[in-house]
Amino acid sequence: MDPSCSHLDQVRAVFAEADGCEDCLKTGDSWVHLRLCLVCGHVGCCDSSKNCHATRHAHQSEHPLVGSIEPGEAWRYCYVDEVMM
Fold this sequence. Notes:
The chain is globular, with a radius of gyration of 12 Å. It has helices spanning 22-27, 53-61, and strands spanning 34-37, 43-45, 65-68, 76-78, 83-84. It has a single domain, classed as Zinc/RING finger domain, C3HC4 (zinc finger) (Herpes Virus-1). Helices cover 18% and strands 19% of the residues. It is built from two helices and five strands; from the N terminus they run αββαβββ. A five-stranded antiparallel β-sheet has the order 2-1-3-4-5.
């Protein structure tokens, strides 16, 4: 991961425990792409989705790191440092 992110010490060994956006599944909504919180494992929908649950989770929980769990994608993003890794 990129050393320009100052939150790498918060990364945990987490796994997606939901087959979709946890919040959208509760409300019956749909999503575009899925993101995994690298601190607690919360699965949320991306900012292209109408609810932006991954970003909302990051701000509410103060968990700065998220990663794509879309097939073929391996990037990570830090909301605080605004760095793509």
